[in-house]
Amino acid sequence: MAPPGSTLLGRRGDEALFVKSWGSFPEVEVLPNNHRTSVAGLQVGVNRIRWVHPASTPDHRHDDAEQVILMLSGRMEMTIDGEEYEMAEGDVAVIPKGVSHHGRTLGEDAVFYEVFAPLRVQNLVGFIGKVF
Fold this sequence. Notes:
Layout: E1 7-12, E2 15-19, E3 28-31, E4 34-40, E5 45-51, E6 66-73, E7 75-80, E8 83-88, E9 92-95, E10 101-105, E11 110-117
Antiparallel strand pairs: 1-2, 3-4, 4-5, 5-11, 6-9, 6-11, 7-8, 7-10
């Protein structure tokens, strides 16, 4: 069944395909000034991240999934495997499994999507079992 307020596009077995606005999903502050909205299928997860300047993440890595970051607005500095990269609207970063990385805003808020494959259930804590 598609979530309320969405359009059911089709069905494959028990999996529903639907279209829904990002604004209809809850946003959670996961770190100071770091807000996450999450949606997931069975094999891939997508987060919309909104960093309110000044915002940063500590150095970390994901041993269970690769990560793709797609910048929507603002600017941030990403340090990936010890190399610094400035990212702005339209930029994309691919971070393989197990590679250390961290980021921080550069003088303004930043909004970006992060895609994880396979799905990282950790990103859905507090959302599992809820329909929005």
